[in-house]
Structure formats: C-alpha cells, structure tokens
Amino acid sequence: MKRRAFTHVAAGAALSAAGTWSSLAQAQAKKPEAGTDYQVVDPRAPVEAPAGKIEVVEFFWYNCPHCNAFEPALQAWIKNLPKDVSFRRAPIAFQESFVPQQRLFYTLEAMGLVPKLHAKVFAAIHDEKQNLARPEAIVEWISRQGVNREQFVAQYNSFSVATKAGKALQLQNAYKVEGVPALGVAGRFYTDGSMAGNMQRALQVVDALIADQRAGRG
Question: What is the pTM of this model?
C-alpha cells in the first residue's frame, strides 16, 4: 500500500514568527496551480452527479488517522456547500483487507445510517481502539449501536453493496489515488494534503476548482 505522509496544520495553532504567518497566508491566497496544488485527471474519471451539478469526492479509509483528523473540517465544509455541488464519499481499498470497511460504509449508506454512525466508526477505531477490520467484528460493533443485525448482514452481503465497492475501486484507480484523505473534483481534478500543503488548504483548492468549473474555466 502506497501512502503519503500528509502535513496537517491544526486550527488555531500558534505560529511563532510573523514571517511564517505571511508565507502561509500567501500560499492560501495564491491561485492553485495544476501540477503543484492539484493534478489534472486524464482520462477523466466517471461522475455520478446529475447534469448541472459539480461533483466532489472524498477518498477515505476508516483506519486512516489522517482521515479521522480531517473529518470535523470536512463536515463543516459540507454544511456550507452551494446547491450546485454534489458531494459523495468513496472508501478506498489499496489491498483486499480494506474491503470489509468499504462494505461497511456502503451498507451504512444503503440503510440511511451514515449521518448517525459514520463519525462513530472513526471514534470506535481511533478513540476506543477497536479493531473493525474483519466482517465479524464489524457486525458485533453494529449490533451494539442498536442496528438490526440480520438486516445489516443481509445488506452487507448484498449484490448492490458489492457492486458499489467495486465501483469505488474503479474510481480510486481512475483518479490515481496515492493516499488518503484525498479529494476529486468533477472527474477532472485531484488534490490532497501533500500537494496542497495541508487538508484545510486542500479544501480551498477544491473551492477554487469548483469556482472555475462553475465559470466554465475548467
């Protein structure tokens, strides 16, 4: 599994020198550049957003500590999305052992449980140190959340969830995802914390790419 080491700047962290503040502000204010702050995806990746909508995809892995750290900022960003932006998540699978958690996410999605349990999965793994890598452990944890065990297992093993997991792998490969968390825009652009400098700025890069798409500049 190839993974990048992402740099994260904690919100409100004190920077010791005024020069550091200046360089950070300049980096955030500068218009994002292709090949530096983001990559152009060629050929284009498939999108699911309807016509007139600009799709943004977050690539994540529940076991990834960087994804866990990014989740609060991402949730805040999602709450302020314009109506012409369609957001979705895509759990990655760099190896076969990741597939159970892919199926977990798509089962939660199919059952309408993402708003209730998505953040709790991260908390269970990273705060409570639970191992949710195997289907058996996932089912046991889900049962403790008050979810009907039989309904969850039936959905988890369903053809539709298997299909979505397969499509997520195809999308991951189409965007050439090298590590998580990462963000795709309109099937055409890809960025992450390594390229943008940190994930907060990666969201700013995405905002700029959305604006360009909206204006027909992309």
Answer: 0.87
Residue 206: which residues within 8 A CB-CB, separation 6 or more?
56, 183, 185, 191
In one-letter notation, the amino acid at residue 213 is Q
Q: How far is CA 108 from CA 18, 19, 53, 113, 121, in A?
A: 46, 46, 24, 5, 10
CB 20 within 8 A of CB 28: no
Q: Look at residues 85, 31, 28 and name the one whose alpha carbon lies nearest to residue 56.
A: 85
Task: Read off the pLDDT band of 15 (50, 70, 90).
Answer: very low
What the block records as the tokens of 26 is 């300049």
Amino acid at 207: D
Compute the distance between CA of residue 211 and CA of residue 185 in angstroms, rounded to an integer. Answer: 11
Q: Above 50 in pLDDT, residue 91?
A: yes
* Residue range 152-174, pLDDT digits in tens: 999 999 999 999 999 999 999 99
DSSP state for residue 45 in the 8-state scheme: P
Based on C-alpha coordinates, what's the Rg of the chain? 18
Q: How many CB atoms lie within 10 A of CB 186?
A: 22
